[in-house]
Amino acid sequence: MTATDSQPPAKPAPKDPWTLPDVSGLVVGVLGGTGDQGRGLAYRLARAGQKVIIGSRTAERARTAAEELGEGVEGADNAECARRSDIVIVAVPWEGHADTLRSLREELAGKLVVDCVNPLGFDKKGAYALRPEEGSAAEQAAALLPDSRVTAAFHHLSAVLLRDPEIKEISTDVMVLGEVRADCEIVQALASRIPGMRGVFAGRLRNAHQVESLVANLISVNRRYKAHAGVRLTDI
Q1: CATH number of the domain encompassing residue 78
Q2: Is-contact 201 184, C-beta < 8 A?
Q3: What are the angstrom distances between the C-alpha of 150 and each of 46, 113, 177, 228?
Q4: Range of the domain at 215
Q5: pLDDT digits (tens, 9 = 90+) for 157-206
Q6: Distance from C-alpha of 29 to C-alpha of 90, rounded to nearest angstrom
Q7: Of the candidates 185, 118, 119, 206, which has an alpha carbon nearest to the alpha carbon of residue 158?
Q8: Contact, 204 vs 34, CB < 8 A?
Q9: How many angstroms separate the CA atoms of 199 and 123, rounded?
Q10: For labeling, which of 62, 93, 136, 172 is most exposed (least CB within 10 Å)?
């Protein structure tokens, strides 16, 4: 045995964290796609060349919204949207979050689910974060969808900017959380298809609460400065 033979094999070079998969061929469903946030995400993703299906409780309402958004967007009821999509973004109101996911457990089995719901309350002092029993909306989704691959992302995007056709780029970062790094990278890649955005890995689902809660702070910022603030991470 030579000295070379006795040496351990060289370790592979670490993967570049900005090397992300090609997601251009995946179909993206948006549950709650007739609301402001869901409609805005559907519009931006379709504009970036993604095939998008808007989901709503009624197929007619979804199809009407899809026609308004234009090419690359279809409308369907929530169940059909979930069945036909590779990735499903959950953008429903917090009040209907649990019931919607519970009713679609079978259709969402095996799917990559991206929860972007922010549990918030409002009173005369403004917006404030709610703490779900499970810890966060994303963790509630994971508990209700044990056969799905749940991630969290797209929390800090302005619906006004998303829906404005005059805005070509939205300069913001999208924090992505999840238990499986490969799933997070798919969502990061999806976010990065929208001009100006970067998808950034930000930890496991147990850290989703503070990401969701930050929206209450952004609402205060936007009201004070009459802005549509997002989040940009430095030094990466």
Answers
A1: 3.40.50.720
A2: yes
A3: 22, 5, 9, 28
A4: 21-225
A5: 999 999 999 999 999 999 999 999 999 999 999 999 999 999 999 999 99
A6: 9
A7: 118
A8: no
A9: 32
A10: 93
